């Protein structure tokens, strides 16, 4: 499970008006996207949950083929994720969560593998089992995915599958 | 009271034309936004004042539920803020102001708590009682809010209220 | 005289399509804008010249009330600036030019005060009399303006005029 | 041959919705653009290949007058580049490729001159003959072009042609 702002993005929102309509852009990292592609073929599912509602998040999630996308405008992440776990019949200790700010604390203190990005606030780092070297939006998610796959001894196989699907021999 | 450009943003404006119309985007920090949410339930009011007029500023201020938003195209901040204080029956020594550039000097030299961001010009840092470690648009406002709440011994309570509203027990 | 890309901007162009139409944004620095405002009331004129044609440049120049704006899609800056000097009856040795790349060399080797930004290519730094500490788009132009005004012993007066126009006593 | 994301860009995509339509921006470096202009008059051809499909890439490639532009949504770069080489009757050992991520590995291990940008993943740096000092989107392509031209002893001539076309004597 991934927080969005500050984890999949550089923790910023680019706001302006186009034709009188509010528009916001978010900055997503391309190497994070390839990391998520490495999970294809594993039994790891990905969910993202944001404490804001943003079309930018929905659009990027669709491109990345994220399994579950939750956006709660009140940053009430715990009830939403509790429902998600029930739907997939999963327990909290089967979950890794990557977060950066106070709104992630109620979830981070329940999951089996709480992870903080380099740019997380002190309270989040204090409860994390792992703090990434990379900042959110600059490869933090890729770092987490690689570390998890290596810990499960699945990294080489995942890279192999990714490359085999792209070498063109069976194009 | 918060200046906008260089305090709530990275001190840049992203300018372009869409359909023949001028459009500008500004980059706001998400952790600053959570900091402003921490002020809910305290008796601290927030005003932002900009020396430029920008729809981006108005849109972000609306999202953050800022109490007072002043945009003066001539960067004449002192008359605008004097009127604001009169409206709220406040004195200058009850005000903290966060600024970065020369246009903030007339206000910074009057308020009780003048604050400069890390990226402020030397003249602004020279009159500041506090200079943030974080740069504008990269958590400077969050740093100020946390420091003020801690100085008032209200930080733990504010975080507690924020989390209680999001743990879902009363959803 | 100021180059645009890499001098007034962070040397990038943000490109995308909106409604099937090409759109580009450029990132301009707000503290540079205040620096240009400090020149009001001095006898220093400002011209910007770009080797690309961009609506973003024209829009920002209009906001900054730049005296002369030249955009040449072939990056042929020398003929354009020669004509500009003739129009204003100025000599090359009365001109300071701030540049960053090879296209600026024909001009930099003619002006009285050639200036390179911190992010300039080696060839440009080699012919510069002054290399800024700040990078383009991050205060390089502000640094140049402050340095020029100080060298002319006009800095304090310029700041005084700027603040006097904003203290509201004569509003 | 140049990868796009992370090589010609800062490895990010800026995503938002305008009028209900998905829009993405990419950040390209202007000094890279001048580097590509230096290749005019040499016998070096340039191709760019992306593992994503983006109008931003197509628009920037058109501006830079790139000879061949390939965008494959499945990141299957090897078959596409094999066809390109056949079209131009070139061998792999006549090709330099600049990449940053796993999707570039099948190509990097075949070309004569494999190059990794500073921000490349370890697997890509491991197979590269040259790793740039500059990061993608911050001059990495300019660095490669200058290094290649110098290695061929063509750099001074290329700069000379570039400047001669812009000094205005034959305007």
Describe, in plain words, how this protein is organized in 3D.
Four copies of one chain form a homotetramer. Chain A is α/β, with parallel strands linked by helices. The first copy, chain A, has one domain: Rossmann fold (3-Layer(aba) Sandwich). Chain A is built from seven helices and eight strands. A three-stranded parallel beta sheet of chain A has the order 1-4-5, sandwiched between helices. The first copy, chain A, has a three-stranded parallel beta sheet with strand order 6-7-8. Chain A has a two-stranded antiparallel ribbon with strand order 2-3. Chain A is globular. The mean pLDDT of chain A is 94. At the A-B interface, strand 2, strand 3 and helix 3 of A face strand 3, helix 1, helix 2 and helix 7 of B.
* Straight-line N-to-C gap of chain A: 34 Å
What is the share of helical residues of chain A? 25-40%
Estimated radius of gyration of chain A: 16 Å
CATH class placement of chain A? Alpha Beta
Fraction of residues in β-strands of chain A: 15-25%
Q: Whole-number average pLDDT of chain A?
A: 94
Low-confidence stretches of chain A: none
* Gross geometry of chain A: globular
